[in-house]
Amino acid sequence: MTGLFITFEGPEGAGKTSVLQRINEIYSGSTQDILFTREPGGIEIAEKIREVILNKAHTAMHERTEALLYAAARAQHFFEKVEPALAAGTHVICDRFIDSSLAYQGHARGIGVAEVKAINEFAIGERMPDVTIFFDIKPERGLARIQEADEREKNRLDVEGLAFHHRVYEGYQQLITSYPSRIRVVNADQPIDVVVADVLAILNEVIGVK
Ligand SMILES: Nc1ncnc2c1ncn2[C@@H]1O[C@H](COP(=O)(O)OP(=O)(O)OP(=O)(O)O)[C@@H](O)[C@H]1O
Ligand SMILES: Cc1cn([C@H]2C[C@H](O)[C@@H](COP(=O)(O)O)O2)c(=O)[nH]c1=O
What is the pLDDT of residue 209? Predict the structure, then answer.
């Protein structure tokens, strides 16, 4: 049986990475076979593309270049790491996937959701996640968390203006309406232990208890 493909999505500072790390610790030593990974990145070639996309010095990057680079990183990561794991029966939990491209490049950058979906179909075919957990937090709250986190270096997208991050949030709201059975919404503006518990409840429901 193939594994389930689960993605975490949401605005900057929503807590996706922190919760993924906590879930990883909770599931380590369990009988469940789960691979934790992230986009853009997750494997060497895609991590190199990540450095190019997120480098703050690359202010001249055209939005179409950006969309194509995310799709290229996704193709490499998907075919090299995600697809083989799913085929071997391993569940995959990925920090960001195609919905990020649809919300950030398609909606917030203004390229168009259908256009960005089309280049991603070229990159990875029509594969969508089985389940997506949306970490719901208003952009101001998420960005404030990042500002407070001294250890975190701000990347080229973090430093976009608030209006951009509002459009990202709006893009995600449209995706939630478009994919009501796939996208599950968790209130990410709660203490991290509560967010972890809410995410675990969904994971236990879809992949079984740890
Ligand atoms: N529930 C929470 N309450 C308060 N602070 C939190 C919570 N979850 C995460 N944080 C803090 O917020 C900051 C951003 O968290 P994290 O990197 O996990 O978010 P993210 O969704 O992965 O962000 P990005 O997509 O921008 O990388 C970190 O400093 C983290 O410690
Ligand atoms: C996959 C993907 C990501 N992005 C943006 C979202 C974030 O600003 C960065 C990734 O940084 P993180 O700390 O790992 O969350 O990239 C995007 O715009 N489009 C995408 O497809």
Answer: 60
Q: 95: which strand partners?
A: 8, 38
Q: What is the pLDDT of residues 148-189, one digit of tens each?
A: 887 778 899 988 999 999 999 999 999 999 999 999 999 999
42: region left, alpha or beta (phi > 0 left; psi from -120 to 50 alpha) = left
- For ligand 1, what atom is nearest to the CA of residue 190? 1
Taken in order of first residue, the domains within the chain and their CATH numbers are: 5-207 (3.40.50.300)
Q: Where are the beta strands (DSSP E) in 88-182?
A: 91-95, 131-136
CB 94 within 8 A of CB 35: no
Query: What are the tens digits of pLDDT across the range 119-133?
Result: 999 999 999 999 999
* 185 strand-pairing partners: 134
ipTM for the whole complex:
0.98
Kindly state if the Cβ of 120 falls inside 6 Å of ligand 2: no
Mutate to test the pocket of ligand 1, among 18, 135, 153, 190 (most ligand atoms within 8 A of CB): 18
Minimum mean pLDDT range among 94-108, 116-130, 147-161, 187-201: 147-161
Q: Which residues pair with 36 in a beta bridge?
A: 93
Which residue from 100, 119, 162 has its CB within 8 A of the most atoms of ligand 2, so it is best to mutate? 100
Helices and strands: H and E segment counts in the chain: 9, 5
Q: Is residue 110 marked as binding?
A: no
